[in-house]
Amino acid sequence: MNRFYSLLALLTLVAVVGCSSAPETDAERQARWAAGNLNSWETEHGIGPVTEDIQLAAVDPAKAASGQDIFIKKCATCHYLDHKKTGPMLRDVTKRRSSEYVLNQILNPEQMGKLHPDGRKLVAQYAQFMTIQGITRENADDLLHFLRSEADKPALPAEQQPGFGTPPPPPTN
Amino acid sequence: MQKKQITIIIGAIGLLLLLLVVGCAQKQEAGGFGDAPAKVYVAPGSYDEFYAFMSGGFSGQVSVYGLPSGRLFRVIPVFSQDPEKGYGYSEETKPLMMTSHGFIPWDDAHHPQLSVTDGQTDGRWLFINGNNTPRIARIDLTTFETVETIEIPNSGGNHGSPYLTPNTEYVVASTRFSVPIPQKDVPISSYKENFKGTISYIKVDSATGRMNLAFQILVPGINYDLSRAGKGPSHGWSFFSSYNSEQANTQLEVNASQNDKDFIAAVNWKLAEELVAQGKGQAWPANYFHNYMDAADVGKSETMNSVTILNAKEHPGLVYYIPTPKSPHGCDVDPSGEYIVAGGKLAALIPVHSFSKFKTAIENKEFDGEFDGIPIVKYESVLAGEVKEPGLGPLHTEFDGQGFGYTSMFLSSEIVKWKLGTWEVVDRIPTYYSIGHLMIPGGDTKQPYGKYVVALNKITKDRYLPTGPELTQSAQLIDITGDKMKLLLDFPTIGEPHYAQACPTTLIKDKSKRWYPIEENHNPFAIKAEGEARVERDGKTVHVYMSTIRTHFAPDNIEGIKVGDKVYFHVTNLEQDWDVPHGFSVFGANNSELLVMPGQTRTILWEPKQAGVIPFYCTDFCSALHQEMQGWIRVSS
């Protein structure tokens, strides 16, 4: 009987070690997310292509400028920095959220809205999933530089928001 | 006493047997479909095995079904305006309906043909003919949208069309009705003297699919009905059924059914190509339209004014007639390319011609006179065999790749299976009712996929719940994997399912476009970002450069519009995600809504007639705030 318990213990040990040492596959991760089982890193930094801490470089003005272009084309349809629109205002988003979270939100909006607890709250609040805009990882990095460069600046009036575009009425003739 | 008991026992046994028999018969009737439900059940979330493209006949559309489920996925408008999609109403798509007779928003669409490479379906494009105002359209199978139409000049009805040569080198079109060519004002009774037919070869660019009318062959004035191209040994030839060799001009139902035999016209298109290259064609003036979606996804119309004509009589070897009983309709070539099967709709048999015997007969000059300058090859010299007593009203034949032909029988409402080579009928199955075409996936190609035959029925009478005087037309899915054909499923169709083609989903599914990249939108009225939204006035014309994304339009308040203005809404959908089109409709519009695919720009014209504040909104339920997706236009007098 003792031998039996030893064997059981050994098997359990093998199972536990086996489980903990094998890296999680993409499919396993997707299944875990779908089951609503997010770990603490994911709860803080979001789910998506970014799965570990990133090293932040200093804000690069060229990348921030490129980020502003992308922001105007792709983001300003729904977000201003300090003016309410379809989605949240983004002036201080890089202070409220980690860079990893911001990148995951930009690159994986659908799963962030469906499976992440904070993302779900935003969907409930705005009654809207963030749209997919065909943003590449490089675009997202530039956007992050832009958002970080804007974070400490003062708020702007509505008509000076990047991407603001209420068209003037046509001239009457 | 004993006798009585025996009688009772026998009686009881008899009663039991009777009950058993009746019971069994009833059981068979009720549950006679066996494992059919399992064979057509495609579980929720699962995909079908085949795409089937069915013509909508006089609805002018193509509908896309899955097989074996019979589920309808999409209706593709082709020759008919479709207000649901804004097709034929939007400024971008209106040019596709232009003809030399002006804007024609309807046609009778008959024969879908999937593009082929080396005689096999390649899943790139679908071609379909417009019968009434002769046209051919091309549908792009990455977007399931009509992208090109070309008008056929010198044609009196484009029925025998758009049959493809084995590498989609050409789309072929023959005139169903002969007419004076070029048109002129002559007595109808001068048919024999003045009426002619044409057979058109439209070159298809192998990279882009773009069509170009390469040449037309002028042929004697009879009705050219259906066609198939040769393949394998018969590659380089096309075959056309014909009727009215009587050249009757009235009461054709009687007068065009007099002759014992009409013809299959065999056309050597490789020779035609050479003759044209040698400059033997004549340039005739013509007037026809070629319309296409350009690189900016905007419809363009070009007017064409010349066509190259080859007069069949003047070029020996270009066209031969093969006598074929009796007003043949279908004209189908088997997978090997050796046999040409004719469906003589008034014939009591199905004649099958042999291509190799046809070649030998030409070499040996085994002719039986000529018809209006075209040599007639002797029937007996070309005939491979006859399928005897197949049924009534044979029309069309498709092949399973296992050595069998399947012919539809219109009058006796059935499909008949027969063996190539022995010409024996091996099986038959009723259809409900009046089958026209039939379709086996890849059944006209070198290697049919087989598995099913689909009956395309003109009449359904008692098969479905009644819906007033007009009842649905139908398709029936029949399993052909065993010795006996088995009916699996009936399903109703959009319009007349005149003909259909099908191919494995793998040829199309993974190439399906999910959205149009906004960076590649070159529509001159597109905007790439919401900040570019604006309103511009040019005299009485106003251009609204509008963007749409969940869940707002920009601009959404428009002022400064006046009664009498022509307002063009150029709506760009900024979404870059699958399955997120937006709709746009404005109160009092006299045309339709717009349905704008992600990344696409579509334009609709609106002419306000009275002062006031006019709402507009998104019609395609796009998100939770869809009801908020709206705006107003102030119109001043």
SSE arrangement:
The complex is a heterodimer of chains A (173) and B (637).
Chain A: H1 2-21, H2 26-34, H3 40-45, H4 61-75, H5 93-96, H6 99-107, H7 109-115, H8 117-126, H9 137-150
Helix pairs in contact in A: 4-9, 6-9, 7-8
Chain B: H1 2-31, H2 36-40, E1 50-55, E2 61-67, E3 71-77, E4 98-99, E5 102-103, E6 113-117, E7 120-130, E8 135-140, E9 145-151, E10 160-164, E11 170-174, E12 179-180, H3 191-194, E13 195-204, E14 211-220, E15 223-229, E16 237-243, H4 252-255, E17 262-268, H5 269-277, E18 282-293, E19 299-311, E20 319-324, E21 328-333, E22 339-344, E23 349-354, H6 355-363, E24 367-371, E25 374-377, H7 379-382, E26 383-388, E27 394-399, E28 404-409, E29 414-419, E30 425-430, E31 435-439, E32 452-457, E33 474-479, E34 486-492, E35 500-504, E36 534-538, E37 541-549, E38 552-554, E39 557-562, E40 566-573, E41 582-586, E42 594-596, E43 601-606, E44 612-617, E45 630-636
Parallel strand pairs in B: 14-19, 37-40, 39-45
Antiparallel strand pairs in B: 1-2, 1-35, 2-3, 4-5, 6-7, 7-8, 8-9, 9-18, 10-11, 11-13, 12-13, 13-14, 15-16, 16-17, 17-20, 18-19, 21-22, 22-23, 23-26, 24-25, 27-28, 28-29, 29-30, 31-32, 32-33, 33-34, 36-37, 37-38, 40-43, 41-42, 41-44, 44-45
Largest β-sheet summary of chain A:
none
Structurally, how many domains make up the residues of chain B? 2
Main beta-sheet annotation of chain B: 11 strands, mixed
Q: What radius of gyration of chain A results from the CA coordinates?
A: 22 Å
β-strand amount of chain B: 35-45%
Radius of gyration of CA atoms of chain B, rounded to a whole number: 28 Å
How does this structure look, described?
- The complex is a heterodimer of chains A (173) and B (637).
- Chain A has 173 residues and is an all-alpha fold.
- Chain A has a domain at 61-164: Orthogonal Bundle (Cytochrome Bc1 Complex, Chain D, domain 2), CATH 1.10.760.10.
- Helix content of chain A is 54%, strand content 0%.
- Chain A is built from 9 helices and no strands.
- The longest helix of chain A is centred in the N-terminal third of the chain and has 20 residues, at 2-21.
- Mean pLDDT of chain A is 87; it is low at 13-18.
- Chain B starts with a helix and ends with a strand.
- Chain B is globular.
- In chain B, strands 6, 7, 8, 9, 10, 11, 12, 13, 14, 18 and 19 form an 11-stranded mixed sheet that branches. In chain B, strands 36, 37, 38, 40 and 43 form a 5-stranded mixed sheet that branches.
- With 637 residues, chain B is mainly beta.
- Chain B has 2 domains: 54-511, YVTN repeat-like/Quinoprotein amine dehydrogenase (Methylamine Dehydrogenase, Chain H), CATH 2.130.10; 520-636, Cupredoxins -  blue copper proteins (Immunoglobulin-like), CATH 2.60.40.420.
- Chain B contains 7 helices and 45 strands.
- Helix content of chain B is 10%, strand content 44%.
- Chains A and B meet through α4 of A and β36, β37 and β39 of B.
